[in-house]
Amino acid sequence: MGIYLDNSATTKPYQEVVDSMVKSLTEDYENPSAAHRMGMKIEKNIKEIRRNIAKTLGAKEKEIIFTSGGTECNNSIIRSCANLNKQRGKHIISTSIEHPSVLNTLEDLEKDGFEVTYLPVNSEGKICVEDLEKNLREDTILVSVMFVNNEVGSIQPIKEIGNLLKNRKNKVFFHVDAVQGYGKVDFRPSRYNIDFMSVSAHKIHGPKGIGFMYIKDGINFKPLMTGGGQESNLRSGTENVPGIYGIGAAISKLFLDLNGSIEKMNSLKNLLKEEISKNIDGIKVNSPKDGVCHILNVSFEDVRGEVLLHYLEQKEVYVSTGSACSSKKKGSHVLNAMGLTPDEIEGAIRFSLSDMNTEEEIVKAVEILKDSVEDLRKIIRIRR
Ligand SMILES: Cc1ncc(COP(=O)(O)O)c(C=O)c1O
């Protein structure tokens, strides 16, 4: 299978996740809305999973709403906020380094007359809270900031932003895209004054096509999906029971020792950084020192990231040049916003780890990386 270092794109499901999903498809396949005993059993199991998820966040059960994943959460939350508050104001603040599921939703709202301020980031990929404060207006209705950036791993000052918004005269809703933060940083949305949050299961060893929104109790919400009234009328559609069983199993395993998992990823990331710095010259680490535990972004001089990615792939080392969603497009909007030069952007590789990786894999991957970079530089330098 090789060495998989592309865990920000997606993670390998835990075996427990696969087992629970097989059970759901072979034994627990009834509709949880059915009035009979079998359906009610599934409903009860979903309730328990929801309770377990809520516990990981110090939240209430009813604050957790299952969706099809991060993209749906971001769309639903931002569009709901815009729709319900447009009489009060049409100004939204976000950042220039959000995931496309936020950026493209905001762009869509701009076509409908909303005004969006995209905060810049510094060379570490972080926004400045004072900058946010300066941009708040009477008609600002929503602030949407990602917890952890998916390309470089910078962690945004979510607690400080929450504190700032708490004291506003006019309510400003606070949405956090926590797709790369949940399961990588231990936090409680209520302590950070978060109103809405987006989470996806496939980034934490769960299945694809399932995630959840955190919607703070008491906040009005206009569902994107209307229909049979599932999920307390907030997200209609027959429940994705295999997905819910899968996310439930993933969370049960991960949160048994969340700090242990975070520590392991941090030490693997440090080893990776040290090995690269020690063995390969002409590199630039783009991730901040205090970045998240699982992402390391590095630029290699005189190498095109895309070519290196495919060179490594032949040797069964799997990495990425940016986010999976944007990797086919030109350039990285995140590295660009951080002020990297075009050559640095072109030479960037994102390594992303999971607690399934080992030290041996990291050492081996860097050996292969070193040879690959040397080979590619030889070719490039001969051509010059
Ligand atoms: C920060 C961030 N937000 C949202 C998403 C979208 O999540 P999903 O793949 O579940 O739609 C991703 C996925 O890469 C992400 O990294």
UniProtKB/TrEMBL annotation:
Listed SUPFAM superfamilies: PLP-dependent transferases
PANTHER family noted in UniProt: CYSTEINE DESULFURASE ISCS 2-RELATED (PTHR11601:SF50), CYSTEINE DESULFURYLASE FAMILY MEMBER (PTHR11601)
Keyword Iron-sulfur assigned: yes
Matches recorded under InterPro entries: Aminotrans_V_dom (IPR000192), Aminotrans_V_PyrdxlP_BS (IPR020578), Cysteine_dSase (IPR016454), PyrdxlP-dep_Trfase (IPR015424), PyrdxlP-dep_Trfase_major (IPR015421), PyrdxlP-dep_Trfase_small (IPR015422)
A Pfam family reported for this protein in Swiss-Prot or TrEMBL: Aminotran_5
Record bears the keyword Signal: no
PROSITE patterns named among the record's database cross-references: AA_TRANSFER_CLASS_5
Family classification: Belongs to the class-V pyridoxal-phosphate-dependent aminotransferase family. NifS/IscS subfamily.
Record keywords: Aminotransferase, Iron, Iron-sulfur, Metal-binding, Pyridoxal phosphate, Transferase
Top-rank taxon: Bacteria
Cofactor: pyridoxal 5'-phosphate
Transmembrane intervals: none
UniProt protein name: Aminotransferase, class V
Residue intervals of the Aminotransferase class V domain: 3-362
Organism: Peptacetobacter hiranonis (strain DSM 13275 / JCM 10541 / KCTC 15199 / TO-931)
One annotated GO molecular function: transaminase activity
